[in-house]
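Dear Dr. L.,

I hope this message finds you well. Following up on our conversation about the binding site, I have prepared a predicted three-dimensional model of the protein together with guanine. For your records, I am including the exact sequence and ligand specification that went into the calculation, followed by the structure tokens. Please feel free to forward this to your student if that is useful.
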Amino acid sequence: MGAHIIDGKKLAESVRAELKLRVEKLIQSGIQPGLAVIIVGDSAASGIYVRNKVKACSEIGIYSEVHSFPGNTQQYEVLDCIQSLNENPHIHGILVQLPLPPHFKNNRVITSIAVEKDVDGFHLYNVGALVTGNTIFSPCTPYGVMVMLERNHIPIEGQHAVVVGRSNIVGKPMALMLLERGATVTICTSKTFDLRQFTRNADILVVATGRPRMITAEMVKPGAVVIDVGINRLPDGKLCGDVDYESVKDIAGYITPVPGGVGPMTITMLLCNTILAAERTQAGAKIDK
Ligand code: GUN
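The resulting structure of the complex is given below.
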């Protein structure tokens, strides 16, 4: 029997419908959630991501603004912008699109964002909060994966989860979030010797390596839950994931397609975090530091 296909697009639509109601409630109480996006340089991919974020905000009633800087901007100019956004009561979430140009220090920029507005969850304080089980904002991509597992009633506690990939944006926070939910977690990378030995033991396999179709059917345990975070552009212009979908779908119990899997959930969770930030200001909640 083939795998159950987890439709990220459909799930994202239903979560966004729920989020829209939360936005309406906030607006009725006089607060429109606001997101500021900062982009430095003219990367085509980053430009598309930012446009998609802005569009998704407007569809559910979140105010958004984009601050675009040319690639040769000095770091202090971006820090000044963040400082004014930190003080702006109409802005509840601030996101700096990554990657930044090489002359920027990522951590210097990200840690200048107010912790309570860091809707990406990349501030070192928020990373520490996640590590210690006191999450303030969950990073959007792994958060989206957790929602996919939950909404499909996939058990996590006691399961062996294998995460392939160790990025700060996906692999590391993904492993921590699964661990927090009681999974036994193994973290591998694309360079792990005999990777198959690990992936074949996974009840839940999350792959985020950026290597097209590197996970093949013989690397997957029959019935496993396979979550593909990769989005790779092939020479023929088509998109594919890090999992060889065509062969793995006959082995896995659940699988996410690419496109239409994890991708639509990432932006959805950004909307969710922005609304959460606005709800906290409404409740007068202070982040306990
Ligand atoms: N670049 C790639 N993914 C992300 C993300 O989730 N957030 C930000 N800010 N930049 C990214």
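In brief: The two ends are 51 Å apart (CA to CA).

With kind regards,
A. P.
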